[in-house]
Amino acid sequence: MATMKDVARVAGVSTSTVSHVINKDRFVSEAITAKVEAAIKNLNYAPSALARSLKLNQTRTIGMLITASTNPFYSELVRGVERSCFERGYSLVLCNTEGDEQRMNSNLETLMQKRVDGLLLLCTETHQPSQEIMHRYPSVPIVMMDWAPFDGDCDLIQDNSLFGGELATQYLIDTGHTRIACISGPLDKTPARLRLEGYRAAMRRAGFEITEGYEITSDFEFGGGFEAMNALLALPVPPDAVFAGNDAMAVGAYQALYQAGLRIPQDMAVIGYDDIELARYMTPPLTTVHQPKDELGELAIDVLIHRMAQPGQKQQRVQLTPELVVRGSV
């Protein structure tokens, strides 16, 4: 494999001149630039990203640790993060925790060892990253996405899930529903817990009692929504409306209602959360709470890059406001 020294020898110039031509960081005459470029082409030379990262003490790489899921929300969010990285000249290295604490910390150590310039964490589990690992790499800035509470000195970006839960439930109340159930995600996850609290707050404010069995804790997955809706339909008095804590569970609920021969929204109103791309193509299109996924990814990258440039500044806590998207399921 050709080296920069080989290019310099063939072009008849110094290695520093070759470096200036490649990096375009200093003026080099057109004639010499042409010689260097011809030598690069003839030798099929490719600059070493590793060598450059060691010299500059940066890799132009951002690591991201995420809990993989069948929930399309995560893939849509990662897409937004990757796009934002590319637009800003960074590469993204993605690791999946599978919801396992040991795997999470192993991946965390791996990303740190690869000398990523910064790290994004989107893992809404109760277990948190190893403080031992975090303290071992104090210079790597970290942005937490929807992971709270957290004791470390990290920037935090969250969706206002409490407000979103209230927004969804209040819309069901405003459209005349009184028997309103909630299918929540796992209550060890902060967004799920806050959305459930938002549901309860809206019900209390309207003076509605929550019927026994109308709150079901599920798993944020398609199958969980299917099973939860079947449980609600088996109650002596089923609800007339359901707030699903995310769109994936709403999709499962749709299937359960379809198999039961019930119509949406005539027999049961359904509202979701996240506004995944699939929501608008369902039958009927799903009314849901929009999480600004592209904005969330873009903001996370910008906050992280700002932290890399100015590591001494006070940590930021940013909360994005969800919005109701009215379609045909209520």
UniProtKB/TrEMBL annotation:
<dbReference type="GO" id="GO:0003700">
    <property type="term" value="F:DNA-binding transcription factor activity"/>
</dbReference>
<keyword id="KW-0238">DNA-binding</keyword>
<dbReference type="InterPro" id="IPR028082">
    <property type="entry name" value="Peripla_BP_I"/>
</dbReference>
<protein>
    <recommendedName>
        <fullName>Ribose operon repressor</fullName>
    </recommendedName>
</protein>
<dbReference type="Pfam" id="PF13377">
    <property type="entry name" value="Peripla_BP_3"/>
</dbReference>
<dbReference type="GO" id="GO:0000976">
    <property type="term" value="F:transcription cis-regulatory region binding"/>
</dbReference>
<keyword id="KW-0805">Transcription regulation</keyword>
<dbReference type="InterPro" id="IPR010982">
    <property type="entry name" value="Lambda_DNA-bd_dom_sf"/>
</dbReference>
<keyword id="KW-0678">Repressor</keyword>
<feature type="domain" description="HTH lacI-type">
    <location>
        <begin position="2"/>
        <end position="56"/>
    </location>
</feature>
<dbReference type="InterPro" id="IPR046335">
    <property type="entry name" value="LacI/GalR-like_sensor"/>
</dbReference>
<dbReference type="InterPro" id="IPR000843">
    <property type="entry name" value="HTH_LacI"/>
</dbReference>
<dbReference type="Pfam" id="PF00356">
    <property type="entry name" value="LacI"/>
</dbReference>
<keyword id="KW-0804">Transcription</keyword>
<dbReference type="InterPro" id="IPR057343">
    <property type="entry name" value="PurR_sensor_dom"/>
</dbReference>
